[in-house]
Amino acid sequence: MPVLVASDLDRTLIYSAAALALTMPDARAPRLLCVEVHESRPLSYMTETAAGLLTDLGDTAVFVPTTTRTRKQYQRINLPGPAPTYAICANGGHLLVDGVSDRDWHARVLARLADECAPLSEVQEHLLRTADPVWVRKHRVAEDLFAYLVVERELLREEWVKELAVWAENRGWTVSLQGRKIYAVPGPLTKSAAMHEVARRTGADLTLAAGDSLLDADLLLAADQGWRPGHGELADADWTAPSIRALPERGVLAGERILREFLRTVRSAH
């Protein structure tokens, strides 16, 4: 039976220059591999060691990149190893099969959202009305499924984020603050639902997951075993559960450690 490994990407397996956390002396810093270029500039990295581990993982398990990114943003990433058959984008709103969105899955997601939570237009209007232009840099809608703001963190009022979270929860939405982005996502739009669907299709009897943010919590809880790095929203909240291991590593070295944990567990399962 195959083992399914569903992992978040940004700040879990891949890291922007700002998120690398290279705290060691320069001469001891790990060699890095660029895995994403945007507008002709390098954007995301993993260590060369992590790249080798991910290649091995892709050969021994069903590796499923699992991201809140849109399909277009995901397709900029060039991960090492075999091309994944499945990928989860837009926080579960799109299930890619060989790079193409599965229409039936997307239709099922849309039906659930229409049934269970307030419409995106209401949330958009609230964000536009209440977010202060002093700290908002961009208003964005992703795949017509959820909204996010790009903000100046040092100017952002934390109270506003808490108030938004309460307002959103009453309408069936969740709020997550990740780096310079504030996400508002419908409650039923989850990475875990899409992971369960891939497990069903592949016949996987063991599921492993990793992630760093509030939007990864459902994925980690749904997996048989999960890992979170020593940075990010979940670490800041000291969030854990019996099946989840909190790792001490922060930054790009956490990505390397997570891949070692995945590989060790996959090999011991075979």
Secondary structure layout plus pairing:
Blueprint: E1 3-7, E2 32-38, E3 41-47, H1 48-60, E4 62-65, H2 71-74, E5 86-89, E6 94-97, E7 100-101, H3 103-116, H4 120-130, E8 136-142, E9 146-151, H5 158-169, E10 173-178, E11 181-186, H6 191-202, E12 206-210, H7 217-222, E13 225-228, H8 233-236, E14 244-246, H9 252-269
Helix pairs in contact: 1-9
Description of the structure:
Helices cover 35% and strands 26% of the residues. The chain is built from nine helices and 14 strands. The protein has helices at residues 48-60, 71-74, 103-116, 120-130, 158-169, 191-202, 217-222, 233-236, 252-269, and strands at residues 3-7, 32-38, 41-47, 62-65, 86-89, 94-97, 100-101, 136-142, 146-151, 173-178, 181-186, 206-210, 225-228, 244-246.
Average the pLDDT over all residues and give the rounded result.
97
Strand content is 25-35%
In angstroms, what is the radius of gyration? 18 Å
Question: What structural category characterises the helix and strand content?
Answer: alpha/beta
The stretches of 5 or more residues where confidence is low (pLDDT under 50) are none
Give the biggest sheet. 5 strands, parallel
Give the terminus-to-terminus CA distance: 9 Å
State the share of residues found in helices, binned by percent. 25-40%
Order of neighbouring strands in the sheet with most strands = 4-1-12-13-14
**What is the ordering of alpha helices and beta strands?**
EEEHEHEEEHHEEHEEHEHEHEH
Total number of strands? 14
Q: Treating each run of at least 4 consecutive H or I residues as one helix, how many helices? A: 9
Shape: globular
Protein name: HAD family hydrolase
Keywords: Hydrolase
GO molecular function: hydrolase activity
InterPro entries: HAD-like_sf, HAD_sf, TPP-like
